[in-house]
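User: Please predict structures.

Assistant: First:
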Amino acid sequence: MTLKHLEEYRDPEIARTLIDSIQNRSRKNIRLMEVCGTHTVSIFRHGIRDVLPDTISLLSGPGCPVCVTAQGEIDAFIALSRVEGMIITTFGDLIRVPGTKSSLQEERATGRDIRMVYSAMDALEVAQANPDRQVVFLGVGFETTAPTIAGTLTMAKTMGLQNFSVISAHKLAPPALDALMQIEGVELDGFIMPGHVSVIIGLKAYGGLFATYRVPCAVAGFEPTDILKAVAMLVEQIESEKPAVENAYPRAVTQEGNVKAQKIMETVFKVEDANWRGLGVIPLSGLGLSDAFAEFDAMRRFQPVVPEAPEPKGCGCGEILTGRKTPPECALYKKVCTPVNPIGPCMVSSEGTCAAYYRFHS
């Protein structure tokens, strides 16, 4: 992509043309959900809600990987951190997410060895540097991060590392969207599809969802004009009553996606049921380690005891992730739950809807 192309996606005149097009075309009251947490932050940062007509409501969906990680998974991470001699490696957002009785941040304050890393490869290097200790990487994310973790595990297997393992709490986006469409009380007229995920899985991955529900879809990038272009596409689909799966991010997303990334994921992972915060157990919506890589499964290796984990009392994170509530409609928002004292993960993660509302919404 040339600098000229990049400038086009940041051109205020192009943005103004798209805004005018949306305002002139939009007549029906519609509810659009941005699935990606990065989109949520970008929409707030650039004031996109403020330039859209009153006919369009934007809702935030289950696109923040930390936010959709189930309470029981958080408790499992904490339980593993208490194993004698253990080193836990994780992305920073997970540190502060409250578990049922503790958090990784609180465990680190008591002396547990919990380290923030920027990639799974960083965690592998920690294992190489500490051959006498067990190192676990907390694998949280969507199809975006799964290929890099798969590559790291392939390298660990080649190296014969005995002290490195992973908890795979990865989630798959298309099954979650299908589950959303089946929840009573969820009313959506279209999806702004995630850009990063779509780079990996391609437009074809949404074929089943579209065939079943005929719901308008448009994949978006992360510049303001990318998002406005996707909204304009969705408005046109809805007003003309011609739903489709369209691509507003062609410079990065293709029909087939990243085939090499898909192949390494298929080798290292297997598709299995997964528990989503706010959505419950969704069949075939998660990635566990395949039998060929079972030796690197931290849950199998250490078998932590994790009691049943209820959601935090009064926390509306689950309903917010499914578009049934906005953060101000949660009884805890800004009263008990703040970035300094988060009750649920939607207020912790930088991509969380509650955190975005708190930071950008007046």
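Second:
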Amino acid sequence: MKNILIIGSTGQIGSELTRELRARYGNSHVVAGYIAGAEPKGELLESGPAAIADVTDAQHIGDVVREYKIDTIYNLAALLSVVAESRPRLAWKIGIDGLWKVLEVARENKCAVFTPSSIGSFGADTPHDNTPQDTIQRPRTIYGISKVTTELLSDYYYLKYGVDTRSVRFPGLISYLTLPGGGTTDYAVDIYYSAVRGEKFVCPIAKGTLMDMMYMPDALKAAIHIMEADGSRFIHHNGFNVASMSFDPDTIFRAIKAHKPNFEMEYQVDPLRQSIADSWPNKMDDSCARAEWDWKPDYDLERMTVDMLSHLEQKLA
């Protein structure tokens, strides 16, 4: 990677990935792509170039790619799971029609492309424990359907046109910098905010519901390392399982309570979020990512909890 375009640079992952890539490759080599009405602000705007790069407009994307001599595109434009269910047509337009445009620009300009997939690409019929890399994927949400299509379309462009497409299946992502934005796993971010504010947490996910989760620094590490990896080692290209930790709401509650003894939680299950969570894996097997590009997370639940609480106490002071 020499010159990088982040499509969706102001979103949940993009806002942090843009900063991380600029620290790694130099501010001038990472372009923060955005849509009108969601312009970068503060450090994100001031630290490097920014340009309109609407995923639904191939002309915009192509112009930016040629102007900045882009060789790598991080395509992060997507609706999160719960939001996608309320706006399925838009979810498809952004996630799949938009991806097609990005891949066409990449084919024409010889760019590598990262487009994240998700644990949402699995479904109720998928093995839930140690979910294999290659297994049945029959999701019943538009979010999951679009993620499976993302993997397949990216593979198609690699196999047919030689476009260097790569992706990982992200678990639920937890960050102290970015506020939740409509994802099924957002409770695992909200709970830390409640703890630091001294509020009782009302959990929308039922006790005993296991889901894979990952701290944002590990998610950034995965997104960068897979694009830096030696592709000649790959057996897979798109949809690598990456895992870090798996827990249910009671487990994360107890981890926080060890540091915040007065913290309290009650359950008020959200049927939509719960139905989505029940269709997702309890824990993914990420042995292929470990074998093919040396994936290894840095954070477990305890280390993440200490770091989250520390940063949020400063942020919310």
